[in-house]
Amino acid sequence: MLRYALGRLLAVVPTFLLIVTAAFFLMRAAPGGPFDDERTLPPEIEANLQAAYGLDQPLHVQFGRYLAGLARGDLGPSFRMKDFTVAELIGRGLPVTLAVGGAALVLALALGVPLGLAAGLRQNGWTDHAVMAVALAGIAIPSFVVAPVLALLFGLHFGWLPVAGWESGSLRHLVLPVVTLALPVVAYVARLTRGSLLEVLQSAYIRTARAKGLASGVILRRHALKPTLLPVVSFLGPAAAGLLTGSLVVEQVFGLPGVGRYFVQGAVNRDYTLVMGMVIFYATLILLLNLLVDLLYGWLDPRIRHD
What we know:
By secondary structure, the chain is an all-alpha fold. Helix content is 75%, strand content 0%. Helix 4 runs parallel beside helix 13 (272-300) and helix 8 (204-211) runs antiparallel to helix 9 (216-228). It is globular.
């Protein structure tokens, strides 16, 4: 297992470098620059700023300098947020994003897996139809519609929950953004669990267990549950990365100081290093979580071995 994990870690290095390269040159190809304002700067001041941040160098030289800094763990300074490095900005927003994204992931699993199992065990019954109808609605309705509706209903109409802002340790500020983030993932998890369970229940070893007279609950717990969860685990790799880095829409609607806010600000302001830092952070999460998913496959399915 350790040998396999180390091999996979080495294999993600080319993918990581490709992502960094594409993001770097795409950012530079976009119109505008980090020092373009509504008020035009004098040419000499703009030239000094370009020289101070190395933007007057050829692109290949800038890229080489950026890779050298990245190898040292240095994401560089923010071009627009003075006196802050990109690592400091990510560190400021990360606790909020981890709290909201982690809670949303737990809620999605806690609701999605049981709902999918209930639907699969009662195929074509009213439970199955109800769960799938709710799941389709959760997938079809985007978060930028769900978020304002929840804020209007539970925040302004009933006055039960705050509609914006953040207080560390306050569960009331977590409820609306967590539910908004979790709903689409609940829907996907429920659908994946149902479909996978129906396929597993048609397997030969399940028919053999039934022929031996084992109870349905025993068959589900001992033989069907782990292989049923394989597609769910596969989906949770990128889904967890998306939740943990925060939804741009959800953080904007509820006024959360997470990392998504800096990504939006960096893109609008052409803050090259800030956007690059967010892309690298997101890509690292996806690659590591996908590696974790591959390792979990060996535990969930005894037929899979990582030699």
